[in-house]
Amino acid sequence: MFYKRRLLAPGPTPVLEDALLASARPMIHHRTDEFNAVLKQVFEQLKTVFLTKSPVLLFTSSGTGAMEAAVANLCRTDRPALVIRGGKFGERWGEITKAYGVPTDVIDVPWGEAVDPALVEKHLKAKPQTSAVFTTLSETSTCVAHPIRDLGAITRATDTVLVVDGISGLGGQECRTDEWQVDVVIAGSQKALMIPPGLAMASVSDRAWAKVKESNLPKYYFSFDKHHKNIAKDTTPYTPAVSLIFALKAALDRMVAEGMDAIFERHQRLGRAMREGVGAMGLTLFAKRPVDVATAVNVPAGVDGGKLKKMFETDFGITVAGGQDAIKGKVVRIAHMGYMDPFDGLAALGALGMGLGRLGHRVDIGAGMGAAMKVIEEKP
Amino acid sequence: MFYKRRLLAPGPTPVLEDALLASARPMIHHRTDEFNAVLKQVFEQLKTVFLTKSPVLLFTSSGTGAMEAAVANLCRTDRPALVIRGGKFGERWGEITKAYGVPTDVIDVPWGEAVDPALVEKHLKAKPQTSAVFTTLSETSTCVAHPIRDLGAITRATDTVLVVDGISGLGGQECRTDEWQVDVVIAGSQKALMIPPGLAMASVSDRAWAKVKESNLPKYYFSFDKHHKNIAKDTTPYTPAVSLIFALKAALDRMVAEGMDAIFERHQRLGRAMREGVGAMGLTLFAKRPVDVATAVNVPAGVDGGKLKKMFETDFGITVAGGQDAIKGKVVRIAHMGYMDPFDGLAALGALGMGLGRLGHRVDIGAGMGAAMKVIEEKP
Which of B28, B34, B62, B337 is the mutation pick for testing A, counting most A CBs within 10 A? Predict the structure, then answer.
């Protein structure tokens, strides 16, 4: 059998065709009215997608660069930061704060679970001098959603800012920056934003700008201040990835036209369809509080998860992700975000069912697909 | 008259068509054998282009990010650095060292001139504890070439490393990293490497690795060590700009096939043709020691340089650069690097001659073009 190639891992995700074409148009100079006009629209559209009135800074880097920017611009060496861990990306926050010599407190959440907001509240009462809480919108390594809205309410009543790594999901996973009182949201271009990797963003609230003024850490390329000043001139401080910004513009045009409510509803439905489908095949989920943009499916006992993940690729042309660190070989992670649709989800369920069958664990594929399609067809 | 658009500014430069197409191919996952195989070749080809046996690190950022990386990885807060200024990009080195709290000594060279190596030698004798000398291969703001080879010989006899910002020119302007004893060379993707902006590189010598071990500055995204360890696994520590790396591969394939000696000879000839052409039109050059990849032409007295620069764009479809800061309105800067050929140079000379004529300063355009073509046709 011939299978097309399908990229269904949680990033990079498939690139919107209009964005691919936009990225291949001939180069123009970045200090021109023509390019400034593109950037001006992009900066406005990003606010729409982030659901914020605050400026959204645009960096030429991977998402990790913007995470580092948040630490370098918001923290001090004489004020503690609080890092919520419970997966690879929560851990990354702690690696960065430590690299910068920021005193770092940690709340360790078991992998697969979401943080209990009460623990954060208690911590901030005990340590009100904490400069920032660093957490994750969609912890891709476990497919868990932390309760960002609750954390926003807690931090807004303190002198601590809330910084959310939304790289793996912003623009798909519901994130209402201003309404949820999130001070800084980080995003990356290669996930729900439907374009190639290479751009990262950070929205910065007024409360966060106050922290920027107090920060005593070194920064240059990732300086929030410098980027902010350049937004006012419809430009960036250093030569940006022009072709990726053409692509971003194409993707944002589409997202703004669809509207964030519709985008969230669509992703919630894709997520629920995948979970119901997996459940109807008799399989279980790794995440206790799952995100909508990706699903971590527990590999049934007796099945080699590494083999199963490889089989997606070799037998069915589908790229998915396996488990990392402690859950290596124990889960497969399937994304349903950005430029992916219900039938991509069907392909993933099909490959999952057939792959398990080939490895000796038969499941009812039809039941899984039927359950998934039922969710897709439900009245809103 | 209808004129095609021509991008002849010193970066971003026109993108090789094969690279544009490569950047528009569908996305693949970055943690795959397929992508690792691309990166493995890219890492090897970069060594060929940099003329070094040392590893060449690859960052998803603009060139400035890699400059910051060099400072953050090589310097200490208790050892001075020496910055050679004499243009916007020399000045940038000093801005970065200061942002990181590195004690910074400066040699100020008048704009348009190259540094006198004897001054550097004298400085390092007086301050042998200097960790690094930061300078520029092609100082785009003035189109001056600093004597990198001489600086290499001087620094190699000391405990100081030589760091060269080769962003605006590496892959066009002659730079023989190992032979010239340069410890770190920085490059950017959007100049002579013929692809869009968004990638930056740094070659790191054994002597520089010793400095990396001693450095006490914070870094995470730009950590030399982390990038180096990942090269051994044919990968990068964070999600790279996959589509730009496809483009880079296409450009490097072409450069390696042509060979660096041929590429340097071609750029030297393009540079000389432009300078002879400009001279034969009775105009003068701003740079006393000019680079081959771009030419800064002095705007004749009585002509409004701002108008002339704009006229390139509005009347002839050609993007060039004007002067910055102290020389604003006094020069136009025309690039001849990367994916530009002799006939692009002719177009620039034609627009220069016609533009000056329209502004009341008549020149002998034919003489300029004849002189340029004579250089192109000379036997090697």
Answer: B62
- What's the rounded Cα separation, in Å, for the pair A108 and A105? 10
pLDDT(B154) > 80 = yes
B365-377 and B342-358 helices, crossing angle to 10°: 170
Report yes or no on B1 lying in a domain. Answer: no
> B104 CB contacts (<8 Å, ≥6 apart)?
B80, B81, B82, B83, B94, B97, B98
Q: Quick one: pLDDT at residue A105?
A: 98
Residue ending a domain, among A199, A233, A258, is A258
Q: Note whether B314 contacts A: Cβ–Cβ < 8 A.
A: no
pLDDT of the residue at A358: 97
Same domain, A116 and A224: yes
Distance of residue A379 Cα from the nearest chain B Cα, in angstroms: 34
Judge whether residue A380 has pLDDT over 80.
no
Q: Are residues A101 and A232 in the same domain?
A: yes
For the stretch A73-100, pLDDT in tens is 999 999 999 999 999 999 999 999 999 9
Q: Which residues of A touch B241 (CB under 8 A)?
A: 62, 196-198, 241, 244
**Residue B145 structure tokens:** 């070439």
Same domain, A115 and A239: yes
CA distance A271 to A277: 10
Length of chain B equals 380
Percentage of residues of chain B with pLDDT beyond 70: 100
Residue B172 contacts A, CB cutoff 8 Å = no
**B285: containing domain:** 6-12+260-377
Whether residues A64 and B220 touch (CB distance < 8 A) is answered with: yes
The answer to whether B157 contacts chain A (CB < 8 Å) is no
Domain count, chain A: 2
pLDDT digits (tens, 9 = 90+) for B193-222: 999 999 999 999 999 999 999 999 999 999
pTM attached to this predicted model: 0.94
The Cα–Cα gap between B126 and B92 comes to: 24
Residues B52 and B201 in one domain: yes
Tell whether the torsion through CA atoms of A353, A354, A359 and A363 is positive or negative.
Answer: positive
**A326-376: per-residue pLDDT in tens?**
999 999 999 999 999 999 999 999 999 999 999 999 999 999 999 999 999
Instruction: Give the domain-ending residue among B210, B237, B258.
Output: B258
Alpha carbons A171 and A43: distance in angstroms, whole number: 15
Q: What is the distance between the alpha carbons of residues A189 and A182, in angstroms, rounded to a whole number? A: 20
Indicate the SS3 state at residue B236: coil
Mutation choice for B interface testing from A243, A248, A314, A319 by most B CBs within 10 A: A243
Categorize the per-residue pLDDT at B379 as very low, low, confident or very high, splitting at 50, 70 and 90.
Answer: confident
A1 found inside a domain: no
With an 8 Å Cβ cutoff, is A11 touching chain B?
Answer: yes
Q: Is residue B329 located within the same domain as residue B340?
A: yes
> Is the pLDDT confidence value at B31 over 80?
yes
How would you class A279 by CB atoms within 10 Å of its CB: exposed for 0-12, middle for 13-18, buried for 19 or more?
middle
CA distance A87 to chain B (A): 16
Is residue B47 pLDDT above 90, yes or no? yes
Please indicate, yes or no, whether residues A223 and A82 belong to a single structural domain of this protein.
yes
| Interface test with chain A among B18, B36, B61, by most A beta carbons within 10 Å | B61
Would you call B217 an interface residue with chain A, using a CB distance cutoff of 8 Å? yes
